[in-house]
Design goal:
heterodimer, A: 700 residues, alpha/beta, Aldehyde Oxidoreductase, domain 4, 7-stranded mixed β-sheet, 28% helix, B: 336 residues, alpha+beta, Uridine Diphospho-n-acetylenolpyruvylglucosamine Reductase, domain 2, Enolase-like, domain 1, 4-stranded antiparallel β-sheet, 12 helices, globular
């Protein structure tokens, strides 16, 4: 229920709806496979004719070091099973698109998309038209959170129908249809086994995840890899094994949602850490700090850590919240919980294999001192347009309001891959930095000549270019532009950014590498009602290693927004189904917190000045969501002494746990594929790009 | 986008005229007050009236008057009643229940009469037309069976009014104006036998006023359970009114549960049990253990129904402790 089947364009919606009722469709009834177990039990009822077997979409297994040897030398081995229920993005704006073919025969599609470049490619392929005749404009989005990353049916429909009708065609999804488009958080069953020495040193970790992918691939191959990729980039794990399976079910397709495939394993891992610390009598703060990776670390699965603010995040959030003096001492029904996490600042690879930049920026300088910045990036409310202006203004010594930013138009702007994977500030920021420095060269050269000052002594600020040694020797930016254009001709430049090559060389290592990881640590304080099972989060403290905060207001907006979304996922939200249908496809019945359910949040920004980021900046749009979910689960254990290994943590589950009748999650019965043993990196081996087949989504 | 079906709108100035228009057009006409529930339902095609009779222009139907008793005009908004000094002071449970309906914008539009008459709810019913078509519809609209209780010959959609349990607990009455005269009935008699015939009010009758008797000397409260305090309908409402004598023993008690059945449910056995007993913790627990039994939550609203049934006992106990001046057992407020 909810899959697009046919489309009708008419002069008004009433007519179109009447016409839709006249469309007759013959359906062959198939069993509705609504869970991982059902999909695995009916391999004969295949949902798609691809994938290795039955309803398995994709399966992977990698061994990074001999985990069995690691478990053998451990003093303590612990296994846990978790389940993370699926949930959806819930952007305020429903998806919408307009298609229009102009008198020149060319097609323009306006869409609320996060990825105009990928939509452009998809339209050219599906419509069998030259890409040069298609223009995609991403409108400013009313929220995306990953849910507007796929090329969608309605985008293709408006294109095709507008060409057939010779008129503009618009589709706006209803809220219910947004629930069916979905591409949200995968339900994931997870099992983790860790071997430890008495002092808490990890000897090996084995992690399994089984994903309920819904009815289509989406970016599900990447999602699957992500459920195994980032466990290793926080704490020292010398040997690591990952097995993962994604299955198809007859539900709205899952895909990328804020944190893409990593909030589920991070929830499992951080609860698991607290459990083994409890087993061994170790302090969960000290364990995390002592076992945090160091800058430059290379993990068992060959992920490269650059700067890492994990220890500082932990120390500061623990200090600010008073965690250590509160844990176990707040009294009945109250508790604190801690968790930490990491996330990518942009994926290392695009979703289709190519050697071109991930982000491009073009700059044009006007004789009046105005500057236009063109970039394919898409502002989905996170402020990426502002970041472009800040970077260029900083480099040219003018003010952000002197800059006009034009973005997300495939005819006018150089390609940026899109607003996903927390890549935009780092990648467009670097591209803008390069473009701005290039266009500054002729301007400074002309200014240096005019002022009689060597170029390397020139600085620019407050719309003036001046001698650093004698600031009174100066001229305005606009004067310098006129001199430069007189001398060198029309002023403009381009800049671009491509992430560094990953050192990882195994097939599948396309997911996980990034220019640099962000880190977060979170403390949650909550009250829990022992009688009703109702949990109330009283306060959240969160520290985030953002590398450098280019605009603290925007960064804190992202951090607080992540906290909000994490709280919804851990306490309320679930994609519930009944009788083959979404049970609650409305914003009233699908429960997500409002501002009134939001507790106070204290955000702490940690700056590690990463060499790979523009001015040192890392991501902040997704990572801060990750620790919130396990921090709530860990706080609930402190408050009530019960573990809920399944999110959302609903009142009925809490009551059942308190009464000892909560059945814990279990793993689906299935066989995992043959394990690929990945040899360790040879010391000093030259880095090579991973195989193209490993690119996320490449084989969906 | 979901659009409203086409309809005509008239706004008579008297209730009698409204009733005559409604009677004249039969099932094609519906009355609308705040519209906060009706318009979303029209967008989803639960209702497709050709004619809407707007009540907002009815003369003298939106005031709040207190002499001995309280008369609330049916068109008084929920926010006006929640904020009324006299209601807050003398009928605090009325103000509280009105103030707990939905969210501020909807309380500014929604009316007291509308909340008493609000359509019953069920998550097989409160869905779009295409969703309901896909499942073959339910007996409340266009179908044959009750999807939440397929063996049942009646509809199990839930009474979801916050103000109704309070009005019943306080012994309130309503004025209903028909085409040829008016009548006054107890709010407890306003509700019908199932989720379809959920009102005894005839379709052409217009509810114009709510009359609440003087309840000085009574201790009253209303408690509401829902997932989000910001906006949600109740999954449980508990209204309690207790009058104690000089010996502190209960002389009269009213306990009314909302959102656990097709109509508000009076816990008569528990009321009877309390008579002549002190409101001490043990008695309260025993009364709550009796009171929650008529609650019949099913899997047609938010949260697990077994948990909702359990909550009825807990919340009755807490409501009774609240009116007895005992610690309720609620989470303490956050110290800021």
């Amino acid at each position: 229920m909810g899959d697009p089947v046919a489309a009708v364009a008419a002069l008004d919606e009433e007519t179109a709806e009447e016409a839709l009722k006249l469309v007759e469709v013959d359906y062959e009834a198939m069993p509705a496979l609504m869970s991982i177990d059902e999909a695995l039990q009916r391999p004969d009822a295949r949902i798609h004719d691809y994938g290795p077997r039955g309803n398995v979409h994709k399966e992977v297994s990698f061994d990074f070091g001999d985990v069995e040897a690691g478990f053998a030398e451990a003093d303590h081995v612990r296994e846990d099973t978790f389940f993370f229920e699926g949930n959806t993005h819930l952007p305020m704006e429903q998806h919408a698109a307009v298609g229009s073919r102009g008198p020149d025969g060319k097609l323009t599609v306006w869409s609320s998309t996060q990825t105009p470049h990928y939509v452009h490619r998809a339209l050219a392929k599906v419509l069998e038209m030259p890409a040069a005749h298609i223009r995609v404009i991403a409108c400013p989005n009313g929220g995306g959170f990953g849910g507007k990353s796929d090329p969608f049916s309605h985008e293709i429909v408006v294109a095709k129908l507008s060409m057939k009708a010779g008129r503009p065609v618009k589709v706006t999804l209803s809220r219910e249809e947004v629930f069916y488009c979905h591409r949200g958080r995968h339900p994931v069953a997870m099992w983790v086994k860790t071997g430890l020495k008495k002092d808490g040193t990890i000897t090996a970790m084995h992690f399994r995840s089984v994903l309920d992918g819904g009815a289509y691939g989406s970016y599900g191959v990447a999602s699957l890899y992500y459920t195994g990729a980032l466990q290793t980039v926080t704490y020292r794990i010398p040997r690591y094994k990952f097995e993962g399976v994604r299955v198809f079910t007859n539900k709205p397709p899952c895909g990328p949602k804020r944190g893409h495939g990593t909030p589920q394993p991070r929830y499992a891992l951080e609860c698991h850490v607290d459990k083994f610390c409890h087993d061994l009598g170790l302090d969960p703060v000290r364990w995390r700090i002592e076992n945090a990776l160091s800058p430059g670390a290379i993990t068992a699965n060959q992920m490269q850590v650059r700067t890492i603010g994990l220890r500082e995040c932990l120390e500061r959030v623990v200090e600010r919240s008073g965690f250590s003096s509160k844990r176990g001492r707040l009294g009945a029904g109250r508790g604190v919980g801690l968790a930490a996490s990491a996330y990518i600042s942009g994926a290392g690879l695009p979703i289709y294999w190519n050697a071109m930049p991930h982000s491009g920026v073009q700059i044009k300088v006007d004789r009046g001192g105005g500057v236009a910045v063109f970039c394919g990036s898409t502002d989905i409310g996170q402020g990426s347009d502002s970041v472009l202006a800040y970077v260029v203004a900083e480099e040219l010594g003018i003010l952000p309001e002197d800059i006009r930013v034009m973005t997300a138009d495939t005819d006018l702007t150089p390609v940026d891959l899109g607003s996903y994977s927390s890549r935009v500030t780092l990648m467009t920021g670097n591209a803008a930095l390069q473009a701005a420095r290039r266009v500054r060269e002729p301007i400074f050269a002309a200014a240096a000549r005019k002022l009689g000052v060597p170029v390397d002594r020139l600085r620019a600020a407050s719309r003036r270019i001046f001698d650093a040694d004698e600031p009174s020797r100066s001229l305005s930016f606009a004067e310098a532009v006129v001199l430069a254009e007189s001398e060198f001709g029309t002023l403009g430049s381009v800049g671009s950014y491509t992430p560094p090559r990953s050192i990882a060389r195994w097939k599948g290592a396309g997911v996980g590498p990034t220019p640099t990881y962000s880190y977060s640590a979170c403390v949650v304080e909550l009250s829990a009602d022992r009688e009703t099972g109702i949990v109330r989060v009283d306060k959240v403290w969160i520290a985030h290693d953002v590398g450098r905060s280019i605009n603290p207001l925007l960064v804190i907006g992202q951090v607080e927004g992540s906290v909000y979304m994490g709280l919804g996922e851990v306490l309320m939200e679930e994609q519930a189904f009944r009788k083959g249908r979404h049970k609650i496809p409305s914003m009233l019945d699908y429960k997500s917190p409002t501002t009134l359910e939001m507790p106070p949040v204290e955000s702490i920004l940690v700056e590690t000045l990463d060499p790979e980021g523009p001015y040192g900046a890392k991501e902040c749009g997704q990572g801060p969501l990750l620790p919130v979910i396990p921090a709530v689960a860990n706080a609930l254990f402190d408050a009530l002494g019960v573990r809920i290994d399944e999110v959302p943590i609903t009142p009925e589950k809490v009551v059942a746990a308190l009464e000892g009748r909560l059945r814990g999650p279990r793993m689906p019965a299935l066989t995992y594929p043959q394990t690929v043993v990945v040899p360790p990196l040879a010391p000093g081996a030259p880095a090579a790009p991973p195989a193209p087949a490993a690119s996320p989504g490449g084989s969906r | 986008m979901l659009r409203l079906p086409p309809f005509r709108y008239v706004a008579p100035r008297t209730a009698g005229e409204a009733a005559r228009i409604l009677a004249g057009h039969g099932p094609e006409a519906m009355a609308v007050a705040g519209g906060t529930d009706l318009f979303p339902n029209m967008k989803r095609r639960q209702f497709t009236p050709r004619l809407l009779v707007g009540l907002r222009n009815l003369e003298g139907a939106s005031g709040v008057q207190a002499n001995g008793g309280l008369t609330v005009g049916a068109l008084a908004t929920l926010s006006a009643v929640a904020a009324s000094p006299v209601v807050t002071a003398r009928w605090p449970a009325v103000a509280r229940s009105a103030g707990l309906v939905s969210s501020p914008p909807l309380r500014n539009a929604g009316t007291m009469g509308g909340n008493l008459c609000v359509d019953t709810r069920c998550n097989y019913y409160n869905q779009s037309e295409s969703w309901r078509a896909s499942i073959g519809y339910c007996m409340k609209k266009d179908g044959e069976v009750c999807l939440v209780a397929p063996g049942s010959d009646k509809c199990w959609a839930l009474s979801s009014s916050d103000t109704a349990p309070v009005m019943i607990a306080l012994g309130a009455e309503v004025t209903l104006v028909g085409p040829s005269g008016e009548r006054r009935i107890a709010v407890s008699d306003l509700y019908g036998p199932d989720g379809i015939a959920y009102l005894t009010k005839r379709p052409e009758e217009v509810l114009t006023a709510i009359h609440v008797p003087d309840r000085s000397g009574w201790a009253t409260t209303y408690r509401k359970v829902r997932r989000r305090g910001s906006i949600d309908f109740p999954v449980l409402g508990v209204a309690v009114a207790v009058r104690r004598g000089a010996s502190r023993q209960v002389e009269e008690a009213r306990i009314v549960l909302g959102a656990v059945h097709t109509a508000p449910v009076e816990a008569a056995d528990a009321e009877e049990f309390l008579r002549g007993r002190p409101l001490d913790p043990e008695t309260i627990e025993m009364a709550a253990g009796i009171a929650y039994k008529p609650a019949k939550p099913l899997d047609n609203a938010d949260l697990a129904y077994a948990w909702r049934k359990r909550m009825a006992r807990i919340e009755v106990a807490r409501a009774l402790r609240e009116v007895a001046g005992l610690p309720t057992g609620d989470l303490p407020a956050i110290a800021s």
